[in-house]
Write a structure and sequence with these properties.
Elements (H helix, E strand, L loop, with lengths): L1 E2 L2 E2 L38 E5 L4 H12 L3 E6 L3 H12 L5 E5 L5 H15 L4 E4 L15 H23 L7 E5 L3 H4 L5 H21 L5 E7 L13 H6 L12 H12 L10 E4 L8
Parallel strand pairs: 3-4, 3-6, 4-5, 6-7, 7-8, 8-9
Antiparallel strand pairs: 1-2
Length: 288
């Protein structure tokens, strides 16, 4: 069964390592926003997007470019995906700076922000989007190493990157953090991941209050099941084939269906919005 956004089910598939490769996905995610109508909402802005090589991050980079922003994408080592994202951004007539490395390393985070700001010529928007997740059936199955790694990638990095970015951000700047539906309803198979997403939510609300008098807005986006490389890199093939079918809309979302939320929060359309979270999840009613 299919709809306008693609197949509700997909071939069973898995990838061996995270964060996954978009080039290996079947079918490929929809990220380009072919029907999107830009309005110059981010003209001349400079943005940094973590996890910008693929998935939601790639779509955000493309949509930001369509709205007139130059972007820097941070990613681990998925050079093929990153090269394509840069090509797609540059087709919009904007610049794309690629920075590869581990955002769980505070030294890399500082160096990446400094390099991106230097090459872009400033910083107006920071999108903290990169994440990893690992399935575990029992709490006892989550090793100390896995737990630390998940927290380091998903929440420690946001502290590292945001601290470094704030040295370059002025009134009118925007910080957007990717949390998750799991922050609100939990997930029995992703306990450490869900915990980091809850921490991101609390950090977003706290930092928004902290920076309000400086005119820097801080908001979040909480996606539901979105078809990104993290999915086949996390779950078994049968689960991947059914991914998203339990949502009210009976399908997974596409990255291009999430990216406009980031455009809104980055733009002056959201000038009176801070400390908030936009839910993009196919109709799953959650609190917060």
């Amino acid at each position: 069964m299919s709809d306008s956004k693609g197949s509700r089910q997909r071939p069973p598939q898995e990838q061996e390592r995270q964060p996954g490769r978009e080039s290996q996905m079947d079918p490929p995610p929809r990220y380009a926003g072919e029907g999107y109508r830009p309005g110059g909402k981010l003209e001349g802005k400079k943005a940094i997007i973590t996890g910008g090589d693929s998935g939601i991050g790639r779509s955000v980079a493309i949509h930001f470019a369509k709205e007139g922003a130059d972007v820097a994408i941070l990613y681990l080592d998925e050079s093929e995906d990153a090269d394509l994202t840069a090509e797609l951004v540059e087709k919009q007539g904007r610049r794309c700076v690629k920075v590869a490395g581990d955002i769980g390393d505070p030294a890399f985070c500082r160096e990446a922000i400094d390099r991106a700001v230097r090459e872009l010529g400033g910083l107006d928007v920071l999108v903290n989007n990169a994440a990893e997740q690992h399935v575990a059936e029992r709490l006892q199955d989550i090793s100390d190493e896995q737990m630390e790694r998940t927290f380091r990638t998903n929440i420690f990095s946001i502290f590292y990157l945001t601290k470094a970015a704030l040295d370059h951000m002025k009134e009118g700047a925007s910080i957007i953090n990717t949390t998750s539906i799991t922050a609100f309803r939990g997930n029995p198979m992703l306990m450490d991941y869900a915990s980091t997403k809850g921490a991101i939510l609390a950090f977003t609300r706290s930092l928004a209050t902290n920076l309000a008098d400086q005119g820097i807005r801080v908001n979040g986006v909480a996606p539901g099941p979105i078809w990104t490389p993290l999915i086949p890199a996390s779950f078994d093939a049968d689960k991947v084939a059914r991914f998203g079918s339990d949502q009210p809309m009976k399908r997974a979302g596409q990255p291009e269906e999430v990216a406009p939320a980031y455009v809104y929060l980055a733009s002056q359309d959201a000038s009176y919005v801070t400390g908030q979270t936009i839910h993009v999840n196919g109709g799953d009613i959650v609190g917060g």
